[in-house]
Amino acid sequence: MLRTFSARGWARAKGPDARPGNLAIGVALGSGYQNWFAALSPSARQSEIASMRAAGISWVRMDAEWWTVEPSQGVFDWSNPDVTADAMLAGGMNLVVLLNESPVWARRAAGTAPLNSPWPTPDPQLYAEYCGQAAAHYAAKGVHVFELWNEPNLDTGANTAAGWGYQSPWGFADLAVAAYPAIKAADPKALVLGGTLATATEFGTAGTARTASWAAVPAGAVSATVSCPTATAADAYGILTGTADGWPVGTVITSAAAGLGYTVVPPAWLGAFPAVPAATGHTVRTGNVQYPPDVFLTQAYARAAGRPMWDALAIHPYTQPLLPAAQAAVWGGWATVPALRQIMKDNGEGAKPMWITEVGAPTGAATVSWPAAAATAGTLAVSGPSAAAADLGYQLAAPGLPAGSYVGAVSPGSGWTVLPPVGTLAAGLAKGTPATSLQLAATSTALTIPAGTVLTVQAVPAPLTVTTSAAVTTATAAATTVPVTGFTPAHSYAAGSVVQGPAGQLWGSAVAAATGRSATLTPPGVATAYGQVDEPTQAAIISQVFRSITVGVPAGSGSLGSDPWPFVGPVFLFCWSDAGGTAGPFGLVRQDGTPKAALAALTALARTGGV
């Protein structure tokens, strides 16, 4: 059984949703869902909430994005997140408010001490001011649970709202140390969640394998040179890892010369390299800037030096496409929990609980086949027994199909008619910014788009439909400007969003036949392709997670049960915007209203308290 956790600011689920076994079920909405939800009529919002409550869901984790609520310093506008917050509170839901995504004005200049990052990172004092304002605003509504940032151990890159720089354990600790007292001062009842650690593989187990050589590096060196004939410029600011080659965990590539190699520096917490022996022809790996949860947590605690950062550690122990019981420890998800728990104890925080604020799996996996198609063909008949009416307009991604191929028609239970896209956006469209044209990326074949053609930019939360105002021929080697009727999008559309339309587009190159190929169906513009599973597997993952927690017998190795389960309160399923459903209802109901298998399993668990 779960131990009951009593602390100011945390309460068990309200009314009939408080079940035996101390199981409380939540959903983590995400900004995509919130945009979808905000566009509903008031009655439709209440219907959505009623569906959640019928499934035993009584908690909601929602975003109050910093860049949205404080577009300029000191000017706060809570109207965007409050559409969701007010409706959910009126519907009887408990809320956790996620505080993340920095505005441009709040980011420090690149290279600012002490992080010395090549990328701007959020200023801790400015973040603390925003968090204090958020705590005061939502405490007045009866909300007292706040979460600091989202998955900071995954660095999303330069100049993005969630971006960090390659020393993110230190950067996040600075934010948390500043924000924690600011929230407590604004709301003494507040319960602060932090860490919010994403699943990430251990160093040396992911990334692109490359062959490299280097001279001996003396102890105390602050940089080193690595030769690598397959290096690319895109490797810069990634992590260099290898197998027993002497490089310390977290070594960073600060510059990369294509075909030549790298300059590397030690992780910030070391300051200098240990002695690294020379090597010739060693296999190393280069990958995105991400830190395994255990490494990240260890270094964040060290940076905080005993100063409080949170009241409970939040984690996201994803395992898809595997069941929790089958996940290898190096994958950093469910199997990392014992290590994280031990790190908390080692830092004097063994009495603090852990919250699971995201878990689950997106659906959309499919097995497909298709015949060969000529370069001059404009359609492709793809067979697959999982085809459903809700798939219309979705991208179908499979080896051998051009990126952006999408579903133009569906034969439920049989297959899809798949079309090549008109193109993809070369530049994004910002919410609320008037525009009179689309910028299409280079296409595989030139395409003439007549004036008056209706085009759809297909992305969640809602498609954007525009009409061309003049004829244009796309370019095959450069972006093309397509004049359209003036429009002001209600949502943002990222570069890479698929542009669809009946413009007679062709494949441009021959498509080879395929049989029994793995594929994924994904709403265009939504990055949920990783780890997509079929619906029965989604149900099994969710059931195994909840049963493991509520009965105290973990999935997989018995070693995970050596310590009493430190989880409390709600466990949040992420609202996947996936095939067979829209951004809502909360990713577990199909567009036609039919519950997915996972929802049925979840409802059964809620009825019994998970026991």
From TrEMBL:
InterPro entries to which the protein is assigned, alphabetical? GH, Glyco_hydro_5, Glycosyl_Hydrolase_39
Origin, by domain of life?
A: Bacteria
Where in this chain does the record put each Glycoside hydrolase family domain?
A: 45-196
- List the coiled-coil residues: none
- The question of whether Transferase is a record keyword is answered with no
Its keywords, alphabetically, are: Glycosidase, Hydrolase
Q: Which residues are the signal sequence here?
A: none
> Which family is it part of?
Belongs to the glycosyl hydrolase 5 (cellulase A) family.
What's this protein's name? Answer: Glycoside hydrolase family 5 domain-containing protein
The upper taxonomy is: Bacteria, Bacillati, Actinomycetota, Actinomycetes, Kitasatosporales
